[in-house]
Amino acid sequence: MPLLSPPDPHTLNDLAELLGAEVVGDGDFTVTAIAHPVFARHRETLALAMDKGSHALLDRTHAGAAIVARGMEIDADRFAGGLTIGSGFRVALARLTQLLSPALHFLPGVHPSAVVDPAANIHDGASVGPLCVVGPEATVGPGAVLLSQVTVAAGAEVGAGSILHPGVRIGENCSIGHGCILHHNASVGADGFGFVSPDEDGIERARKTGQVTPFNFDILRIDSLGNVIVGDAVEIGAGACIDRGTLGPTRIGDGTKIDNLVHIGHNGTIGENALIAGQVGFAGSVTVGDRVVIGGQAGIADHKTISDDAMIAAKAGVISDIEPKAVYAGYFARPIRQVWAQERDKLRIGKAVREIRRLRQRVDRLEQDAEEPRGEPDDAGRATAGSKGNPRKA
Q1: Rounded to an integer, what distance in angstroms lies between the CA atom of residue 3 and that of residue 259?
Q2: 36 compared with 2, residue with greater pLDDT
Q3: What is the spatial distance between Cα 157 and Cα 155, in angstroms, rounded to a whole number?
Q4: Which residues have a catalytic role annotated?
Q5: Residue from 77, 234, 246, 100 nearest 164 by CA
Q6: For residues 52 and 67, what is the distance between their CA atoms, to the nearest angstrom?
Q7: With 80 as the cut, is the pLDDT of residue 189 above it?
Q8: pLDDT confidence bin for 198, thresholds 50/70/90
Q9: Residue 236 near residue 276 (C-beta atoms within 8 A)
Q10: Where are any strands of DSSP class E within 86-199?
Q11: Is the whole-model pTM more than 0.70?
């Protein structure tokens, strides 16, 4: 895990081999950091300048090397060397940032201020930071890191090499896989939103009929007896909330990445390698397939299924099942080509309204002409006063 150890120095030759890039200048030049040209603070930094805007800033950098798009120049008088890359810029960025990421600040073992139950199992090499709480029969795996003020409740498990940032809460009997990253104040294992009134069909009836009758005089709580199972290599953003299931687990598949402030309701199942952007909300019992991509602030209604490889645009409202490899957008969500067609139609509305207005004015003029009285012709066939047009001269 690169995040758990200080970054090692790397030569430009090493980085070129990793990225499939070409070396310019001194291939043995060593770098220990990567930064935007303006924010490079020392010569051992690799300045990232793969677009025209950042490339123009290279004359202001303190970096000793640069990585640029193929065809861009690297000033040999300013830089010891550099790299040129033809494509895959974001993939290169991912590899470089992982390789040169600064180390987290933690110490192996249990901090004196942490509260660890005697029945907890803390594996060798794990780190339990300041003010953490680890409950009875909880497990913290080898090399796992709990930074400050993390709670791992009774019977919960944190897998080997996982990193829990400050304020993370893991509920009772929930499981976090190996190599996961949970960011600040993420909550895994809170109770689901399960409530019912004696008139349990009242809300559904109101939704169908548009008429509301009093039914919420007594709201009963449905306790959440299940848990949450998070797979390996999952990332969960700051403030995200994943609710435990009612009777069984809520599941998050291996490799899935969840952004900040996402809510996943009780009994949900998220597949492997899904990408879920910020503020997405899943109602209860939603099923999401593998490799699904969901844009920010989308909402998914309860008991709906989004199949493998589907994509949901930002702010979409999903109220029906989505077939595999489909791309949906809009509220209510529908195939994105339909949305595009409707948006094009909207752009035509202004033109159509102007044409209708012009035609209406023409009709009004014609109606006025038809309603005006015409004079009787004289003996010579000429129109008398009150007739339209210019009477012919005798």
Answers
A1: 19
A2: 36
A3: 7
A4: 266
A5: 234
A6: 12
A7: yes
A8: confident
A9: no
A10: 109-110, 115-116, 121-122, 127-128, 133-134, 139-140, 145-146, 151-152, 157-158, 163-164, 169-170, 175-176, 181-182, 187-190, 195-196
A11: yes
